[in-house]
Amino acid sequence: MSDVDITLKVWRQDGPDQKGRFETYQTQATPDMSFLEMLDVVNDSLEEGQKLPISFDSDCREGICGMCSLVINGVAHGPGEGTTTCQLYMRSFADGDTITIEPFRARSFPVIRDLVVDRSAFDDIVQAGGYNSVNTGSAPDANSVLVSKDRAEEAMDAAACIGCGACVATCKNASAMLFVSAKLKHLNVLPQGQPERRERSRAMLKAMDDAGFGHCTNEYECEAVCPKEISVGTIAFLNREVYRSSLVTSSLAPTVTGE
Amino acid sequence: MALDGHVPGGPLAEKWDRHRFDLKLVNPANKRRHSVIVVGTGLAGASAAATLAELGYHVKSFCLQDSPRRAHSIAAQGGINAAKNYQNDGDSVFRLFYDTIKGGDYRAREANVYRLAQVSTSIIDQCAAQGVPFAREYGGTLANRSFGGAQVSRTFYARGQTGQQLLLGAYSALMRQVAAGGVEIFPRHEMLDLVVAEGRARGIVTRNLVTGKIRSWVADAVLLCTGGYGNAFYLSTNAKGSNVTATWRAHRRGALFANPCFTQIHPTCIPVSGSYQAKLTLMSESLRNDGRVWVPKQGGDARSAGAIPEADRDYYLERRYPSFGNLVPRDVASRAAKAVCDEGLGVGSGRAVYLDFADAIQRDGADTIRQKYGNLFQMYEEITGDDPYTTPMQIYPAVHYTMGGLWVDYNLMSNVPGLFVLGEANFSDHGANRLGASALMQGLADGYFVIPYTLGGYLAGAQLGGVDENHSSFEDTEKQARERISSLLAVDGSRTVDDFHRELGLLMWDHCGMARNAEGLTAARGRVRELRDDFWKNLTVTGSGGEFNQTLERAGRVADFMEFAETMIQDALTRDESCGGHFREEHQTEEGEARRDDEDFAHVAAWEFAGIGNNATLHKEELAFENVQLTQRSYK
Q1: How many contacts, defined by CB atoms under 8 Å, are there between A and B?
Q2: Cβ-contact A170, A222 below 8 angstroms
Q3: Which chain A residues touch B272 with a CB distance below 8 Å?
Q4: Interface check A136 vs B, CB under 8 A
Q5: Which chain B positions have a beta carbon within 8 Å of A148's beta carbon?
Q6: Mutate to test the interface with A, among B134, B142, B183, B382 (most CBs of A within 10 A)
Q7: pLDDT above 90: residue A168
Q8: Is residue B330 annotated as a catalytic residue, yes or no?
Q9: Active-site residue (options: B69, B200, B330, B557)
Q10: Is the ipTM of this complex over 0.85?
Q11: Fold of B275-384
Q12: Based on the domain organization, do A142 and A52 belong to the same domain?
């Protein structure tokens, strides 16, 4: 495959309270370049011309840290299933293509600059209950609590969430339900998570509301863009947990773990 | 300066217990009066910050990323070792200790490594209780695998995302303490300098990466948990933001830098494809369990891999190491790949070898291979566009981990009182080569189970009065940090930060990488100095200091790599032996293997800063081996 000529329309915004605009750039890319490397090259040439480069977040560049966050041609993390922006390669584009790049947009993710947004609302949600309260040193021998293989796999499927926020960016309600449900399910299906199951469900959902995220209206777009392919079934789990927590009046009530 | 590792007396197995008893305790009511700064939120930083807050200390936690959960520990794939002996296959604390110290080619401190093996078992308990979804057997017990050529199965794992799951466990503990008021977090903050006042580490200067605001913070102790310096090579498997700034700045304030030349080159990474390349991607070394490594026997063989008959292939690892074959340790496999490519036998760009699964697929079927490695094969195809089920992978070694770091004693305290260094940022446990699945173990051991004791021992005995943010050291350090930012912006040249970083990286890779020699190192040192001069004359940094400015962030980090690189080279030049990941071409056996010199180099080389461009001053900590016999590693 040979090099491709690309036109970029990139969202530029100088600060949180500034008005943004699209700017257009021409660049050439090779098929083996990652999408972010293509942007690196654009930035290198902007800097050489003493122009401000495009600000965007990235860190691990291998799809696990969750730092990269671009909406590419209207799709969070761009084309390709189960990938983050940093795992997107230019061979996905054709010569002469125009690519539009925007930040993850949501009221709860304010723009810091250009394509960089503030996702600290996710940390606030986790602070509300996304943990098991076990101080260091107090844990029993790891094999004293058995976890069936299926259950461990179920927890792991949810725990694979990288907290990137693509689910929020793509949702017309800017709902964080997929994120919250993944965090919740990871802990709530495990025996170690049972003591705080009820409170956790209520508290995390409340924190999501407080942070200004919207509600779920079953659009399924979150599942479609999730780089870790977390299923919307996880949201159904959350709904059951919240309903359940309203029926169970105390943590002393019998727990049903399915073990 | 006399270097005292403060290793406790008594038999190896009793040292840590005795020491814990001997350490002074901080009264619970007094813990509330102590404040601690923790820089970095990877496994070491997050586990330390959470645990110290649980004990009652006031903790301030700083990280570069937009959330503590994104620190680069998250990218670790393979697993975490622990001497649980759940498999009943002969593992023990002593065996894990022995394997780790031998794997490090006898360049680590015995007592530290033994303690690491001792606390390894508690780490697994803690993480399981936090809800880390470790792999399980059908009966519900924890699963293990053998990793990195170990002869016992002691590696715990969560699919190929062990680092992510352990970090999310530590992050959840940290978030719990934030909610409880014991920890304040400062994401998107970069440490620019260490504040030393009245002879003790008493704070840091940071830059708020969103607003550009520079300010200082005072505390009773500072913990650096800031990871390794692999990005000195520009291309590595590290995250883009990984850097040496925190440890290098502390070094400039008096902390000794130990064994900076010890870097680990991982053998199975996706090769470089072009000059625009921003990072290298690791393919788990578990692939070597089933993949066969080979190159064509004739250089320049233009046939596709499948068209090259068996007779024309050289399975060089199997040929050179009949008993270990494709499973030789990382340093050995990496050097062998370089050697065949140097001979002109490399494939693809010339800097790659084949990792071929054809035999394994024929033997076990494609489905079995898919179950084992499906996600890795998919990742490879996404990056390269080639399908490993039908075409052999191309791989080449890449910089992955750095064993060197700030010198610390048994308490994880540097030679600057009150400055503690944890995880990859210190030098202490992996010697000259780290074994697979041991980095996660060390980060969490330091944070969960070592620092909570040793920090208390320090605080209980330290005279900390009379220093606050108005102390002149804070004003001076903050002023210098501001001046440095201004001077980066004032260069006003025409060459970009990344361009300088790429050149430095290539220079280091060529002369201070997998194989080193005195001539190359000496030449490289001169070129680093020239490049650094050029950097300060021709750099361009757009934007200003008082705003979100990623170019400025990178410029500061590359400026520090430019200084650090010289110390790394000096260490590599001075260590006139081969050991572990440090291969001096002058010191090899007739078969081309590393030849150690235990007579002259069984020591830690700890360097003291003596000014930019000057020779750093060497301090040696002799390593005493009382419990293991030093042997030549052999994988024939």
Answers
A1: 219
A2: yes
A3: none
A4: yes
A5: 136, 138, 140
A6: B382
A7: yes
A8: yes
A9: B330
A10: yes
A11: Flavocytochrome C3; Chain A, domain 1 (3.90.700)
A12: no
Domain-located, residue A201: yes
CA distances for B52 relative to A62, B48, B61, B415, angstroms: 32, 6, 11, 22
A65-69, A110-114, B283-287, B478-482: lowest mean pLDDT where?
A: B283-287
| B126 contacts A136? CB cut-off 8 A | yes
> Which residues constitute the domain of residue A95?
4-113
- CATH code assigned at A33: 3.10.20.30
Position B563 scores a pLDDT of 98
Q: CATH code at A210?
A: 1.10.1060.10
Spatial CA neighbour of B127 closest among A142, A257, A145, A156: A142
Q: How many CB atoms lie within 10 A of CB B507?
A: 21
CA B251 – CA B581 distance, rounded (Å): 23
Domain with CATH 3.90.700 in chain B: 275-384
Within chain B, which residues score under 70 in pLDDT? none
Residue B136, token pair as written in the block? 């399980």
Q: Residue A32 carries which DSSP code?
A: T
Residues in chain A with CB shorter than 8 Å from the CB of B547 are 15, 113
The answer to whether position A151 is within a domain reads yes
Rounded distance between C-alpha atoms, residue A34 and residue B280, angstroms: 11
Query: Which residue in the set B172, B240, B452 is minimally distant from A131, CB to CB?
Result: B172
Strands B155-156 and B80-81: antiparallel
Q: What's the gap in Å between the CA of A13 and the closest CA on chain B?
A: 12
Indicate yes or no: CB of B550 within 8 angstroms of CB of A55.
yes
Domain with CATH 1.20.58.100 in chain B: 473-622
CA B216 to chain centre: 27
Residues of B in contact with A62 (CB under 8 A): 75, 279, 281-282, 379
User: At which of A98, A113, A128 does a domain end?
Assistant: A113
In a domain, A259, yes or no: no
* The two three-digit tokens of residue B151, written as one number: 């002869």
Among B129, B142, B278, the residue with its CB nearest the CB of A134 is: B129
Q: How confident is the model at residue A258 (pLDDT cuts 50, 70, 90)?
A: very low
Task: Provide the domain count of chain A.
Answer: 2
- Taking CA atoms, B160 is separated from B76, B134, B164, B492, in Å, by 8, 11, 9, 45
CATH architecture of the domain covering B473-622 = Up-down Bundle (1.20)
pLDDT at B151: 85
Q: Any chain B CB within 8 A of the CB of A81?
A: no
C-alpha dihedral (B65, B69, B71, B74), degrees to nearest 10:
-140
Contact state of B175 with A51 under an 8 Å Cβ cutoff: no
Length of chain A in terms of residues written: 259
Residues of A in contact with B551 (CB under 8 A): 47, 53
Are A107 and A25 contained in the same domain? yes
For residues A37 and A69, membership in a common domain is answered with yes
- The residue from A85, A113, A141 where one domain ends is A113
Do A64 and A170 fall within a single domain? no
